[in-house]
Amino acid sequence: MLVRASAGTLARLGLIEFKTLEEPSTAYLLQYSEKGCNARCGFCLQSRSSRREPREWLGRVSWPAVGLGELKNSWRRVFKRICFQTVLKPGFHSEALKILGELREVDPETPSSLAITPVPEHVLEASRRLGVDAIGVGLDASTPGLFEKWDKPYSWSVYWRFIEKAVRAYGAGNVYVHLIAGLGESLREIVETMLRAHGAGCRIALFAYVDPRGSSKAGLKHYRLAQLARFLIENGLNPEQYIDLDKEWVKRDIPLNNLLEAFYTSGCPDCNRPFYNESPRGPLYNIPSARAMASYLERLKEELRSIGVEA
């Protein structure tokens, strides 16, 4: 049985030689499908509608295929979390549970996340028994219209019902709704979707859209404001009290001392996915570590001044 793993993950396990400025703190694994995912999401390089070959790319990152046995034999407990991401293909959820079970045999301690499309409730229950403590749901688009435009599978309402089901199964704060900035949404639209997800008991994992040539397409000011809005929501504040969502500008001082934390990678605990959305040369949409923050800080301060924030 084959799986895909990010190049950074394989390098940390000693399976390939690959130099990077930042190591992944999570082991990123992707379900294997020779023909890609049966979904037709227009922004995804794993989609069957994508013309990019070979099928080992997702975001700006390569995901070489590796035998599950080889992965298990090479496993070292150097990661803080395992993230297993599924694709749509026949029997995908049964295969996903089998892989999670085999990984649990070699590493029963490291917490796991499962990124999955709508599935029956028994799959959620089974994954929890296998040590999964966080569920990622790729809603991705911020409005029903964009959901259809980018050809997401199922429907907007099916996804929201599944999100509610996942929260019932895993508890508030343990379901992460993935949103992609740069798909054509306004700042108000993405913030309203964040607020809906938060109200349902979810947290937000924010991504920047990367086109098939590897270029990030989310406007940087738009993305910084979306990150800031997410952080305000996480801290129990209403973004609209501090951000003009229509003019895209911070209109008043924000009463948080740790504001720079808004611009780190958002997602499950210990997820840093280095350079998934950006070139190491920058701009860094998602800052993967304290070391990277220190190196990027002066440039980030300039970016924040452009949206009305003195950091």
UniProtKB/TrEMBL annotation:
Q: Which UniProt keywords apply?
A: Iron, Iron-sulfur, Metal-binding, S-adenosyl-L-methionine
An example Gene Ontology molecular-function term = iron-sulfur cluster binding
Q: Does the keyword Methyltransferase apply?
A: no
Q: Which Pfam families match?
A: Radical_SAM
Name the InterPro entries for this protein.
Answer: Aldolase_TIM, Elp3/MiaA/NifB-like_rSAM, rSAM, rSAM_sf
Question: What domain of life does the native source organism fall in?
Answer: Archaea
What region holds the Radical SAM core domain? Answer: 22-252
Name recorded for this polypeptide:
Radical SAM domain protein
